[in-house]
Amino acid sequence: MVDTQILVHMQAGRRVMPAHATIASVSAKEFLIMYGNKPDRDRYYVPLRLGRHSLMGPPAVLQMPAGHPFRRIGTDRLLIDFNQEHPSLVEFGSNAVASAINSARSDLFKAGVMVLRKAEQRNLEKRFRFLTENRFRCEALEENAVGYGLDILDRFLSDYAPKGHFRNTVCDALILGTAIRHRIPLQTEDKLLARLTAKMFGTRFYQEGEDLVIDFETPSVVRRRHGESKGYIHRGWRIAVDSRR
C-alpha cells in the first residue's frame, strides 16, 4: 500500500511504479482532491450508482441528466465524533470511490466532478485514469480500520500537536488504520508515524530507497482491545456508519 505523497511521486515519475499496488480510499480522496475545508462536506461527491441503475449495471445505460450535479445524499458516509474535543468529521464516499476505481468506472467519477470548473475536471479525470490504468486496488474505509486509526491518532495527540488542518492528521491515521486492517505493508515518507505505529502494534519498518515501509504482515500485529467494539472508541469518540443513502 502506498500513502498519498508516494502516490503523487509516482504520478510525477519520481517513484518506480509497482506491478501491483493498493491504496486506501482516504489516499484516493486526497489524491483526487475531494476533501474541502469544512469537516462535514467534500468538494464533490462520487455516486454509488447513477439514476436507478446499480453500480454493476451496463455502463451504456448509466446516465445523469445534463445540468444535474451529483449531491452528497446519494453516496455513503461515515461520521467520526470526537466528543467535542475536535470537530466531528464526515467521511463521504469511501465505498463509492473504492468501487469506482476498482471497476474503472470513469462515468461515476465524472458524475461527481461535473460541479467543478472544466479545467479542474480535466485534471482530476487525468488523475483518476492514472489510478485505473495502473490498476491500483482501492480499499474502502471500514469500522475496524477507523478503530485502528483512532488508536494511533489518540496516541499521537497525547505527545504531538496535529497539523494545521486537523483533518490531514486524521487522514494520516486512517490510512495507517486501513493498512493495519488488511495487513498490507505501507510505503510512506512519514518517519514519526512509522515509529509510533511500530511501537504501538509491534511492527517493524525498514528503509526502501527514499521511503520507509511499515510491515503490517507480521503476526505480532494485533487489534487493541478497546477498538474491538463497533460504533465507538474510548474517550467518548464514536463511529457512526451510513453505508448508503
3D architecture notes:
It contains 8 helices and 8 strands, in the order H-E-H-E-E-H-H-H-E-H-H-E-H-E-E-E. It has a 3-stranded antiparallel sheet with strand order 3-2-8, with helices on one face. A 3-stranded antiparallel sheet has the order 5-7-6. Helix 4 runs antiparallel to helix 5 and helix 6 crosses helix 7. The two termini are 29 Å apart.
* Oligomer description: single chain
N-to-C order of helices and strands: HEHEEHHHEHHEHEEE
Strand residue content: 5-15%
The largest sheet, given as strand count, sense and whether it forms a barrel, is: 3 strands, antiparallel
Mean pLDDT, to the nearest integer, reads 84
Shape: globular
Q: Helical percent range?
A: 25-40%
**Span between N and C termini?**
29 Å
Count the DSSP helices.
Answer: 8
Structural category:
alpha+beta
Strand order of the largest sheet: 3-2-8
Number of strands: 8
Contiguous low-pLDDT stretches (5 residues minimum) are: 53-69, 222-229
> Rg, please?
18 Å
